[in-house]
């Protein structure tokens, strides 16, 4: 079955960097775009970034442009989110997600940024 497992979250000070990873299995990773979404405390899901199936095209929500970078490794079936210059408003539970015939997301990894 489709499985997405996120890792790399933590509690950090504002201004530092974190790198999230998402290991995928159970579907043809190389033919699907991948997303990162997040949910801040008390708020709904927010789309953060998307990378195309071939890794060529990326898109970001305005609030993270220039600070976050999404990438993927076909051989490792893993998608990454490099987060730089973290801000307190980046505090959220981060999920990777995809839609290989049905929307799927992992269990999430918590990122807490203190100012």
Using brief descriptors, characterize the structure shown.
115 residues; mainly beta; 7-stranded mixed beta sheet; 4-stranded antiparallel beta sheet; 0% helix; 52% strand; globular
What does this structure look like?
By secondary structure, the protein is mostly beta strands. Helices cover 0% and strands 52% of the residues. It is built from no helices and eleven strands. It has strands spanning 3-7, 10-13, 18-25, 34-39, 45-51, 58-60, 68-73, 78-83, 92-98, 104-105, 109-114. Strands 2, 4, 5, 6, 9, 10 and 11 form a seven-stranded mixed β-sheet that branches. The protein has a four-stranded antiparallel β-sheet with strand order 1-3-8-7, with no helix packed on it. It starts with a strand and ends with a strand. The mean pLDDT is 97.
The backbone outline, from C-alpha atoms, is globular
Poorly predicted ranges:
none
Order of helices and strands: EEEEEEEEEEE
Secondary-structure-derived class: mainly beta
Report how far apart the termini are.
40 Å
Roughly what is the average pLDDT, rounded to an integer? 97
The proportion of residues in beta strands is over 45%
Number of strands: 11
